[in-house]
C-alpha cells in the first residue's frame, strides 16, 4: 500500500529524497540516518516501497538484495521479504518496519514515521 | 461466471492436482470434490504406520475439512459418484447429489483385487486399502489371535508386519516361491524372508488359496493341496487394479485403466484423469511420485497453460517395515546385453545388485543397506555413464572421494533425534522428521523451504533425502529428472539455452516474455542464470543487466555478515613483489581495513571495507597496477602455482610463468560458477592442481592436464584429460575447456558435477579428440574475452555505477 491517504495527517513529515530515476528499476537505494538505514525499492513496474534496511532474519541489508516482483531477496541468506508489507515470504516468519513513500512529479517522498501495521522485530 | 471443475475421488492424486492448480491459478474454477470416504484427504502411504500403531489417523490427514472451506472448495465427503452424464455435463452421486461441470477430473484410484474363492464375503475377510480397512484390522487384532495374509508382496508384508506388531500370530501365504517377486530378485527375497521370520512372521510359500472356510466368521483357509490353516482374520493383499468402472460406464475408452494421453486427458477432452485409475502409454502406476508428476501436468492443462507433458515415470519401491531396509528400482532382472554387479554379505545381512546396460544403471535391488538408493536412482534417471565409477559403484557414494560425510550417511536411520543434519543452518534430525510429518512435506524442496536443511551448501542433501525416504517410505517425491530452472518457469536450463540461441533472444525481458514466465520479472534464482546465458550466447552484443546480478557481482566485492565488503586484488599466479605488498599495506592503512587475510588462493583479502569507500580504494589499487581478483564472482578466480623450476630442485617446468599466462588469458570471464586453476611444477603437486577445475601438473616431457576437481563441499579429485607438450597447447586446451563449460553447464553447476553429468568421455571427445572443435571453442573463448577483460574496479573508480556506492540521501 502506498499510504497516500496518510499524506494529510503527516504531511509535514514527508522528505524529498530524490528523483525516481535515481533508483534503479528492480533495485533499491539507501536513505541513511543515524537511527538506521531505510531501503527504498523500485519494482519493475515503477512502484516504490520503503522498508527498514534490516532483514528480520540476521539483519542483512535488504537494499543490497535483488528485487523481483514485489519481493526482495536478502543478500545474506536469501530470505524473501514482501517489500509492500515488510513481512517475510512464508514459510519464513518475520517482519521489518515499513515506511510511507510516494512519488509525485518524478520525485520520491519518504516519511520517517514507520507505518503502524508493520511492526519491527529487528533491533 | 467461473468455470466449474469437478473432481471425483478425494485421494492423493486428485487433490494434488487441485493443489497444483490453486498454486497456478487460484480463481479460475469453482471446484467441487466428491469422495467416497467420509472425511478429508489423507496420506495413504502412511496407512502402514497407522496399522503398526506408530502413527494415528490424525497424523496422516493432508487436508482437513476446514482446508476445503478455506479454499472455497465444495466437498461432498462420503458421497460416491454413481454416473457421469456427459451430454448434460454433470455427475450424479448415489444419494442423488449432482454437480455440473465444465471440466471433470477423475481420480478414482484403485481397488484391491479380491480372489474369487468361496468364503470371500465372510466376516473377518478384509483388504488393505483405506483407513476403514486399517480400523477393521485394528479391531480384529484386539479380540482375535490368528491372522492369515494372502499375498507376499509389498502390501501384504506391510499388513502382516502391522498385525504382528498388534500382537497377532501372522502367517503369510504366497503363490510363488519368493516374496515381492515384482521388486526383488531371489537372493534379496530370501534375505527378506529370513529377517521377517526372525521377527515372528510365518510363511507358507507356493500355495494357492482354494477357499475361505467358516460359518458367519472366517475360521480357516484351505489350499489347493488340501491343507488348511486356522484363521480368525484374513487379509487379501494380492494386488490392486485401476478403478475405471465409473469411466467405463460413462463410455470413456478404458483398457486396464482409464486411457489418457500425455496431457492427462481421456478420450473426452473435457474429462481428465490422474492417479492409480489411469493407464498411460500402456502403464499403470501405484506409487505416489508418478501420481504427483501426473497431477502437476494435469494442473498445467486445467490452468490452460498448455505446455507440460507427462511422458511416464520411473519408480522405486521401499518396504515400510521399521527396521528392514529394502529398495528396488527399475529393471533388475538380467537380460541379454545387461551386466550385473553384485555384493552379498549374508553375515551382515547386506545384499546389493546393480544392473547395467552400456554402462548405464537400468535397475537396482538393495537389502540391508539402502543408504545409497537415492544416489543409484538419480544415476539411473539421469542416464549417467558410470564407467568411471564401476570399480567402486557398489560401495556407495561415500567411497567416491566425498570426504567427511560417509560415516554419518551410513547411520541416518539410527541416528539420535538431536543429531545435526544440516551443519550450515543448524537443523537436527528431529526437526526435519517432525516437519515432514506436521507440514505434510514430500519433496526435498519443501523440506528446504520449511526447515532450511540442505538449503545452503547442499552437502547434506543425501541425508535429507534419506530422512524423507525413511519417514515416507519409497514414495517420497524425488527431484524430477528434468528440473525446471526455478519456480518461475517449467523450462529446464537446457531448453532455455536452446531458446536463447535458436530464437535469438537477446534480453532477459525477451526470454521471460517469449517463454511465458509465471512471474512478472523472474526471481533471484533465474535472473542471474538468464543474464549469464545471454552473456555467453551473445558476447559483445548483450548488455549485462546489473539488476540481474547478485550483490557481490553488482558491487564487485564480497558482502560480509555486517554489510561491509571485502576486497581481493588479483595477484597473477600468486607471485607478488615488495612494491605490490607495500602498496597494499598503504591502501589497507589508508582505508582503515580492520582485517587483512591471506586467502587459500595465494592472494590478499582486505575485509571490513565500507561500501562508500570501495570506488576510491579501487582507484588507489588501480593506480598501483592492480585489477579486480573477481573473488566475488561466478568467474575465473585464482591460478595457484608453485615456484617451479626457477627455484625448486624438483621443478620440471616454469609453473609460475605458466600460471601467470593462464590467468592473463582467462581473467575477467564470467562462468556458470566459480572456477579455480592451478599449475604444479612437478608431480609432487604442491599447488594442489588435482582438486581444481582445471589443473596443470608439469612433467619433464610437458604438461598433464586435469579437469573437474573440487576442494569445496564435496572433495573431488580431477579426471586426467590428456598430456600436452607445449605451453601454447596448455592455453588452447584450457580455453577450450572453459568455453565448453561456459556454453553447456547449468548456471551454478561447478565443473565437478558437470563433468560427472556429461561424462569425461564427452569432454575428451570435444576437446582432445576433435582438434577443429577445440580450436573453435578456444576461438570463441578468446573472442568473448575481448569484451570481458575490462577491469571493473578501474571503471567504477572512474564513476561507473556511482549510484551503487552512495546513499540516495542522508537525513537526520
Description:
The complex is a heterodimer of chains A (about 120) and B (about 800). Chain A contains no helices and ten strands. Chain A has strands at about 15-20, 25-35, 40, 50, 65-70, 70-75, 80, 100, 100-105, 105-110. Chain B starts with a strand and ends with a strand. The relative contact order of chain B is 0.06. Among the domains of chain B are: about 5-110 and about 240-300, 3-Layer(bba) Sandwich (FAD/NAD(P)-binding domain); about 125-240, FAD/NAD(P)-binding domain; about 495-550, no CATH class; about 555-630, Sulfite Reductase Hemoprotein,Domain 2 (Sulfite Reductase Hemoprotein, domain 2, Alpha-Beta Complex); about 635-790, Sulfite Reductase Hemoprotein, domain 1, CATH 3.30.413. Chain B contains 26 helices and 39 strands. In chain B, strand 13 (about 170-175), helix 6 (about 185-200) and strand 14 form a beta-alpha-beta unit. Classes of the chains: A mainly beta (about 120), B alpha/beta (about 800). The interface of A and B includes residues 15, 18, 22 and 25 of A. Strand 2 of chain A pairs parallel with strand 39 (about 810) of chain B.
Protein traits:
heterodimer, A: 123 residues, mainly beta, Rieske Iron-sulfur Protein, four-stranded antiparallel sheet, three-stranded antiparallel sheet, disordered N terminus, disordered C terminus, B: 812 residues, alpha/beta, FAD/NAD(P)-binding domain, five-stranded parallel sheet, 39 strands, 22% strand
Helix and strand topology:
The complex is a heterodimer of chains A (123) and B (812).
Chain A (H helix, E strand, L loop, with lengths): L13 E6 L7 E7 L4 E5 L5 E5 L13 E3 L2 E3 L6 E3 L15 E2 L1 E4 L2 E5 L12
Antiparallel strand pairs in A: 1-10, 2-3, 3-4, 4-8, 5-6, 6-7, 9-10
Chain B lengths: L2 E6 L3 H13 L4 E7 L5 E2 L4 H6 L8 E3 L1 H6 L3 E4 L3 E5 L4 E4 L4 E3 L2 E4 L3 E3 L12 E3 L3 H13 L2 E5 L3 H12 L3 E6 L11 H14 L2 E4 L3 E6 L3 E6 L4 E3 L2 E4 L3 E3 L2 H5 L8 E3 L10 E3 L4 E3 L7 H15 L13 E3 L7 E5 L7 E8 L4 E8 L2 E8 L5 H9 L24 H4 L10 E3 L4 E2 H10 L5 H8 L9 H12 L20 H10 L5 H7 L11 H12 L13 H5 L2 E2 L5 E3 L10 H13 L4 E4 L5 E6 L4 H10 L12 E6 L13 H12 L8 E6 L13 E6 L2 E6 L11 E6 L2 H18 L6 H8 L1 H8 L3 H18 L3 H6 L4 H4 L3 E3 L1
Parallel strand pairs in B: 1-2, 1-9, 2-5, 9-21, 11-18, 12-13, 12-18, 13-14, 20-22, 34-35, 35-36
Antiparallel strand pairs in B: 3-4, 6-7, 7-8, 10-19, 15-16, 16-17, 23-24, 24-27, 25-26, 26-27, 28-29, 30-31, 31-33, 32-33, 36-37, 37-38
Helix pairs in contact in B: 1-8, 11-13, 14-16, 20-21, 21-24
Amino acid at each position: 500500500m502506498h499510504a497516500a491517504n496518510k499524506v494529510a495527517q503527516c504531511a509535514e513529515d514527508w522528505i524529498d529524497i530524490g528523483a525516481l530515476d535515481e533508483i534503479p528499476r528492480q533495485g533499491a537505494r539507501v536513505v541513511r540516518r543515524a537511527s538506521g538505514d531505510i531501503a527504498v525499492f523500485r519494482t519493475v513496474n515503477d512502484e516504490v516501497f520503503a522498508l527498514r534496511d534490516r532483514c528480520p532474519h540476521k539483519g542483512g541489508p535488504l537494499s543490497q538484495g535483488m528485487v523481483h516482483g514485489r519481493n526482495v531477496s536478502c543478500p545474506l541468506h536469501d530470505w524473501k521479504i514482501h517489500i509492500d508489507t515488510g513481512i517475510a515470504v512464508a514459510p519464513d516468519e518475520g517482519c521489518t518496519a515499513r515506511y510511507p513513500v510516494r512519488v509525485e512529479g518524478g520525485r520520491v517522498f519518504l516519511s520517517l514515521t514507520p507505518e503502524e501495521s508493520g511492526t519491527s522485530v529487528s533491533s | 461466471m467461473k468455470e466449474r471443475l469437478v473432481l471425483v475421488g478425494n485421494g492423493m492424486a486428485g487433490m494434488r492436482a487441485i493443489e497444483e492448480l490453486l498454486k497456478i491459478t487460484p480463481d479460475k474454477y469453482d471446484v467441487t470434490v466428491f469422495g467416497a470416504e467420509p472425511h478429508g484427504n489423507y496420506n495413504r502411504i502412511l496407512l502402514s504406520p497407522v496399522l503398526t500403531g506408530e502413527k494415528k489417523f490424525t497424523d496422516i490427514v493432508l487436508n482437513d475439512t476446514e482446508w476445503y472451506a478455506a479454499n472455497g472448495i465444495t466437498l461432498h465427503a462420503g458421497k460416491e459418484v454413481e454416473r457421469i452424464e456427459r451430454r448434460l455435463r454433470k455427475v450424479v452421486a448415489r444419494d442423488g447429489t449432482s454437480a455440473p461441470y465444465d471440466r471433470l477430473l477423475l481420480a478414482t484410484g484403485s481397488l484391491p483385487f479380491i480372489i474369487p474363492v468361496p468364503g470371500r464375503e465372510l466376516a473377518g475377510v478384509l483388504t488393505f486399502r483405506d483407513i476403514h480397512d486399517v480400523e477393521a484390522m485394528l479391531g480384529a487384532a484386539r479380540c482375535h489371535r490368528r491372522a492369515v495374509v494372502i499375498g507376499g508382496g509389498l502390501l501384504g508384508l506391510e499388513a502382516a508386519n502391522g498385525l504382528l506388531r498388534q500382537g497377532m500370530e501372522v502367517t503369510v501365504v504366497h503363490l510363488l516361491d519368493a516374496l515381492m517377486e515384482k521388486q526383488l530378485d531371489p537372493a534379496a527375497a530370501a534375505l527378506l524372508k529370513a529377517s521377517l521370520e526372525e521377527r515372528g512372521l510365518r510363511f507358507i510359500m507356493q500355495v494357492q488359496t482354494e477357499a475361505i472356510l467358516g460359518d458367519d466368521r472366517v475360521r480357516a483357509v484351505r489350499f489347493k493341496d488340501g491343507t488348511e490353516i486356522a484363521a480368525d482374520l484374513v487379509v487379501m493383499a494380492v494386488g490392486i487394479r485401476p478403478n475405471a468402472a465409473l469411466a467405463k460406464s460413462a463410455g470413456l475408452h478404458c483398457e486396464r485403466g482409464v486411457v489418457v494421453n500425455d496431457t492427462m486427458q481421456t478420450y473426452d477432452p473435457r474429462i481428465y484423469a490422474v492417479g492409480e485409475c489411469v493407464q498411460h502409454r500402456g502403464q499403470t502406476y501405484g506409487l505416489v511420485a508418478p501420481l504427483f508428476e501426473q497431477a502437476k501436468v494435469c494442473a498445467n492443462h486445467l490452468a490452460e497453460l498448455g505446455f507440460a507433458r507427462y511422458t511416464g515415470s520411473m519408480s522405486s519401491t521401499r518396504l515400510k517395515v521399521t527396521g528392514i531396509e529394502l529398495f528396488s528400482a527399475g529393471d533388475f532382472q538380467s537380460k541379454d546385453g545387461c551386466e550385473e554387479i553384485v555384493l552379498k554379505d549374508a553375515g551382515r545381512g547386506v545384499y546389493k545388485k546393480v544392473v547395467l546396460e552400456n554402462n548405464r544403471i537400468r535397475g537396482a535391488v538393495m537389502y540391508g543397506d539402502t543408504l545409497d538408493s537415492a544416489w543409484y536412482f538419480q544415476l539411473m534417471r539421469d542416464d549417467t555413464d558410470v564407467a568411471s565409477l564401476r570399480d567402486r559403484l557398489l560401495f556407495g557414494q561415500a567411497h567416491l572421494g566425498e570426504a567427511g560425510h560417509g560415516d554419518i550417511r551410513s547411520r541416518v536411520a539410527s541416528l539420535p533425534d538431536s543429531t545435526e543434519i544440516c551443519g550450515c543452518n543448524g537443523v537436527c534430525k528431529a526437526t526435519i522428521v517432525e516437519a515432514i510429518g506436521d507440514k505434510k512435506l514430500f519433496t526435498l524442496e519443501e523440506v528446504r523451504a520449511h526447515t532450511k536443511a540442505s538449503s545452503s551448501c547442499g552437502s547434506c542433501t543425501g541425508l535429507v533425502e534419506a530422512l524423507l525416504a525413511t519417514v515416507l517410505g519409497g514414495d517420497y517425491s524425488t527431484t524430477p529428472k528434468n528440473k525446471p530452472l526455478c519456480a518461475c518457469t517449467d523450462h529446464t536450463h537446457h531448453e532455455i539455452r536452446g531458446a536463447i540461441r535458436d530464437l535469438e533472444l537477446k534480453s532477459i525481458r525477451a526470454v521471460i516474455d517469449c517463454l511465458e514466465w509465471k512471474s512478472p520479472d523472474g526471481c533471484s534464482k533465474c535472473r542471474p542464470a538468464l543474464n549469464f546465458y545471454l552473456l555467453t550466447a551473445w558476447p559483445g552484443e548483450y548488455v549485462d543487466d546489473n539488476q540481474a546480478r547478485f550483490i557481490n557481482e553488482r558491487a564487485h566485492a564480497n558482502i560480509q555478515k555486517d554489510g561491509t565488503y571485502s576486497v581481493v586484488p588479483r595477484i597473477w599466479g600468486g607471485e607478488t613483489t615488495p612494491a605490490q605488498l607495500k602498496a597494499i599495506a598503504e591502501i589497507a592503512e589508508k582505508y582503515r581495513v580492520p582485517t587483512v587475510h591471506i586467502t587459500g588462493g595465494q592472494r590478499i583479502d582486505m575485509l571490513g571495507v565500507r561500501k562508500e569507500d570501495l570506488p576510491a580504494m579501487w582507484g588507489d589499487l588501480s593506480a598501483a597496477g592492480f585489477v579486480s581478483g573477481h573473488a566475488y564472482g561466478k568467474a575465473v578466480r585464482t591460478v595457484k602455482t608453485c615456484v617451479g623450476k626457477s627455484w625448486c630442485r624438483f621443478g620440471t617446468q616454469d609453473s609460475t610463468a605458466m600460471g601467470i599466462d593462464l590467468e592473463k588469458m582467462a581473467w575477467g570471464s564470467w562462468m556458470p560458477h566459480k572456477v579455480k586453476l592451478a599449475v604444479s611444477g612437478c608431480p609432487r603437486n604442491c599447488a594442489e592442481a588435482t582438486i581444481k577445475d582445471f589443473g596443470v601438473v608439469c612433467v619433464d616431457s610437458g604438461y598433464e592436464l586435469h579437469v573437474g576437481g573440487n576442494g569445496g563441499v564435496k572433495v573431488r579429485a580431477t579426471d586426467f584429460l590428456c598430456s600436452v607438450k607445449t605451453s601454447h597447447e596448455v592455453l588452447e586446451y584450457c580455453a577450450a575447456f572453459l568455453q565448453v563449460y561456459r556454453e553447456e553447464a547449468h548456471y551454478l553447476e561447478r565443473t565437478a558435477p558437470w563433468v560427472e553429468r556429461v561424462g569425461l568421455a564427452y569432454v575428451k571427445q570435444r576437446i582432445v579428440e576433435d582438434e577443429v572443435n577445440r580450436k573453435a571453442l578456444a576461438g570463441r573463448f578468446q573472442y568473448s574475452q575481448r569484451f570481458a577483460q575490462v577491469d571493473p574496479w578501474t571503471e567504477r573508480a572512474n564513476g561507473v555505477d556511482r549510484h551503487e556506492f552512495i546513499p540516495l540521501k542522508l537525513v537526520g
